[in-house]
Amino acid sequence: MFLRKAAFLLLIILSHFSSAQRKKKNDTVYVYEKVIVYDTIFLEKPIKARFDDIIFPILAITDKIIPQNPKLKRARISSRRSIPKATFHYGAEAGIGFKNSTWTQKLSGDNQQFGENIGVWAAKDIIDTPLSVMLNFNVYHWNSTFDLDANTEVTPLNGYHFTEDHEPLLFQRFNNRHFEYVLHAKLFYEWKNIRPYAGVSVNRNIYKMQFVVPENNSVDDFKTYKVNLGFSFGLQYRILKKILLTADYQQYKLKNISLKNSSLDFDVFNTNNTFAERKINLGVSYMISR
Q1: How many CB atoms lie within 10 A of CB 230?
Q2: In what helix (H) or strand (E) does residue 34 lie, and over which residues does it extend?
Q3: What whole-number distance in Å separates Cα of residue 68 and Cα of residue 110?
Q4: Least confident of 17-21, 43-47, 112-116, 261-265
Q5: For the chain, what is the mean pLDDT?
Q6: Is the sign of the CA dihedral 6, 8, 10, 16 positive or negative?
Q7: Which residue in 256, 141, 137, 138 sits closest to 206, CA to CA?
Q8: What's residue 144's pLDDT?
Q9: Which residue intervals of the chain are DSSP H helices?
Q10: For position 201, what pLDDT does the model report?
Q11: DSSP assigned state of 52
């Protein structure tokens, strides 16, 4: 009996120690939350209120015409209207150049004449195109490359020269220093600051030769009066808004060179040949107009 109790007690102790060696497991608890959203609605409605102490004045329009500020009106009109681009321009120019004429080549050799020129011009733009037309008038002064004086030296022109009416004239002096008047009509094409052009020209050279007229034994001037037709082309470059550099070439055809005295009414030194005249010019042009 005692052995049974002791065995039962030993069994209880062993079971107690075995359960103590086991690991405790954590339990997972899930909590669910129920969320309820309530919408709040606000209603607006007029509230009837009576203000016995507040008096509002009655508004009335007395003038049916609303006055306008004339300065503001002009400002609006000027802002709407764009300022048109000027299509007409005018200005002046000056330059230097070199000239070679075949009719005096035998006397001057291959020497080219140096000269100066001044002129005025007027141009009109062709609307909606880069083209413009120009008319300009120039006066050239060409310096002499030779000097013939029968009173001081023997020259190729010394002696008597006869007119068409067989009137004798005794040669005195001549050089190729002269004035020249030129009228140009040009067509320009403008691309950025570069303006190439081409056109036609007419010129008149005033050469002067002196002869002694035996009828009155006086020294008279005989001059050229013919108008010559030619062409020109060149290039302009705009360095500033109103200042342009110009380089051009001109060529003319001279027919039947003759010298005439208007008071005596006859020609002398009349030729039937055709000569060429060529010029190269450099200049500065200034635009006077806005």
Answers
A1: 20
A2: none
A3: 78
A4: 17-21
A5: 81
A6: negative
A7: 141
A8: 92
A9: 2-21, 70-80, 105-108
A10: 96
A11: S
